[in-house]
Amino acid sequence: EVQLVESGGGLVQPGGSLRLSCHASGLAFDDYAIGWFRQAPGKEREEVAYINNDSGRTEYADSVKGRVTISSDAAQNTVFLQLNILELEDTAVYYCAAQLYELAPFWLVPEQYEYWGQGTQVTVSS
Question: Are 12 and 123 in contact, with CB atoms under 8 Å apart?
Fold first, then answer.
């Protein structure tokens, strides 16, 4: 059974940092692309970052460019999302999603991802 489990969320002050983790099991890690999404109350789910574990291609939303880094550790079957210089508007539940890399040469809309985790809450507040 494929499982994606997010962790690392929490409460942080504006300007602070968090590193989120997405641990994958039940799939061939290097055959998948991973997208990080977030959803704030009353907002649509939006993609934040993307990594293709086959090609190494990464993409970032304009709203987080320069503040976010996505990376992958195949030995741990884990994709990380480093969040820096956090802002109040970064508050959201952050989700990771997976799709076979052949079907995800670049990031997809949420409906096109096959597997999803349950999310981890990031709250930015002073």
Answer: yes
Beta 120-124 vs 10-12: how paired, if at all? parallel
Q: How many CB atoms lie within 10 A of CB 93?
A: 18
pLDDT tens sequence across 7-28? 999 999 999 999 999 999 999 9
> Which tokens go with 117?
């985790």
Query: Cα–Cα distance between 44 and 12 in angstroms, integer?
Result: 23
Residue 61 half-sphere exposure toward CB, CA atoms < 13 A: 16
* Cα 126 off chain centre by: 24
- Interval 28-61: pLDDT, tens: 999 999 999 999 999 999 999 999 988 999 999 9
Q: Which of 28, 38, 54 is nearest to 106 (CA)?
A: 54
- What DSSP line would sit under 49-101, residue for residue? EEEETTT--EEE-TTTTTTEEEEEEGGGTEEEEEE-S--GGG-EEEEEEEEEG
107: pLDDT strictly greater than 90: no
